[in-house]
Design brief:
about 120 residues, mainly alpha, about 70% helix, membrane, transmembrane, transmembrane helix
């Protein structure tokens, strides 16, 4: 009995009619694979929304308290965290596409990791 099912991505090339070398199509091919993965997860949008909220609530919402207390970070850290958290809620509940939802989540992860690295190192 499978409750959560993650669809396998369809790894397709964007344009197979043109002849290109590996050097000119490497960056574009990675982007196409990423977009193919995001598009394949469209039926699981609710699962990704819940995963985003739970992981941010557990991992990222305590970050401002940690940085403010131990590293004397500015209060703007709290504002950044709350804006990113509520932006993810609005994106998930507002009917945005799966690419937008995954993009907000990835951006939030990168911003929080960057904040941790800046203040801890």
């Amino acid at each position: 009995m499978a409750i959560l099912k993650i669809n396998a991505p369809e790894w397709t090339a964007a344009n197979t009619n043109t002849i290109t070398t590996a050097n000119t199509n490497t960056g574009n091919n990675i982007w196409n694979k990423l977009m193919a993965f995001a598009d394949s997860q469209a039926p699981n949008k609710t699962v990704w929304f819940m995963f985003s909220l739970i992981s941010q609530g557990v991992l990222f919402l305590p970050v401002p308290a940690f940085l403010l207390y131990y590293y004397n970070a500015p209060i703007a850290i709290l504002a950044i965290t709350l804006v990113l958290f509520f932006a993810n809620i609005i994106a998930g509940m507002g009917g945005s596409g799966i690419r937008t939802l995954l993009g907000f989540f990835a951006f939030s992860v990168l911003v929080h990791i960057t904040m941790l690295l800046v203040f801890m190192l």
